[in-house]
Amino acid sequence: MRSTLHLLAALLPLMLASCATRPPQPPLTTVPHVDLQRFMGDWYVIGTIPWIVEKDNVGTMDIYSPRPDGKIDIRYVFHKKSLDAPQREMKAVATVVDTTTNARWAVQFLWPFKAPFLVIDLAPDYSRTTIGYPDRSLIWIMARTPQLDEAEYQKALAEAARQGYDTSRIVRVPQPTAP
User: Fold this and answer.
1) Is the dihedral of CA 158, 163, 165, 171 positive or negative?
2) Residue 64 contacts by C-beta under 8 Å, 6 or more apart in sequence?
3) How far is Cα 140 from Cα 82, in angstroms, rounded to an integer?
4) For position 175, what pLDDT does the model report?
5) What is the predicted pLDDT for the residue at 167?
6) Residue 123 is inside which H or E element, if any?
7) CB of 103 within 8 A of CB of 31?
8) Strand partners, 116
9) Residues 1, 9 contacting (CB under 8 angstroms)
10) What 8-state DSSP symbol labels residue 33?
């Protein structure tokens, strides 16, 4: 009995350590400002940590359109498993929640649920952007064209890593070749 108690006492710290979580990371840093008019339009998803509805999606693209009420319509278009598959679409509505920077949005695909959308990287010419999720479980590296120059992709990955993302989890999204 005594040896069992000693064994449990010796194993207790190991068991507790295995239950420990990583220390919290600082909040994601958004870009200082997003010009919403310049941000509108087509964005091809180049790399992502996909969420469940994005599994096996290829040729994915977000299309942002301003609404008269100040909100933003989002069309998420994609093909399932193959670029030759029929194009599908999901719709959402975004609300800018930080109107000082325009870099924090709340996106609603399904009422009443809203998901945070944080612009954490944006090329000065608006050719590339990265959208982050506060707990770093999701990310979207996007570009205005279906293909992104490798150096630009590496810049996006470096910024994601700087912000605390595990970039080994980011997968490239197959896109059509540019016309």
Assistant:
1) negative
2) 39, 40, 41, 43, 72, 73, 74, 94
3) 20
4) 96
5) 97
6) none
7) yes
8) 106
9) no
10) -
DSSP 45-65: EEEEE--GGGTTEEEEEEEEE
Scan for tokens 């108690």, then name that residue.
5
Low-confidence ranges of the chain (pLDDT < 50): 1-20
For residue 104, the tally of other CB atoms under 10 A from its CB is 19
The answer to whether the CB of 157 falls within 8 A of the CB of 166 is no
In degrees, to the nearest 5, what angle opens at C-alpha 94 toward C-alphas 89 and 98?
A: 155
Q: How far is it, in rounded angstroms, from Cα 141 to Cα 128?
A: 7
Q: Which two tokens stand for residue 96?
A: 């800018």
Question: 69 and 88 in contact (C-beta within 8 Å)?
Answer: no
Instruction: Report residue 145: phi and psi, to 5°.
Output: -120, 160
Q: What's the length of the chain?
A: 179
pLDDT at residue number 19: 41
Instruction: Report pLDDT digits (tens) over 138-154.
Output: 999 999 999 999 999 99
Nearest to 60 by CA among 85, 36, 37: 85
What sign does the CA torsion over 157, 163, 169, 170 have?
negative
Instruction: Report d(CA 110, CA 9) in Å as an integer.
Output: 49
User: Which domains does the chain show, CATH number per domain?
Assistant: 28-170 (2.40.128.20)
Find the radius of gyration of the CA atoms of the chain: 20
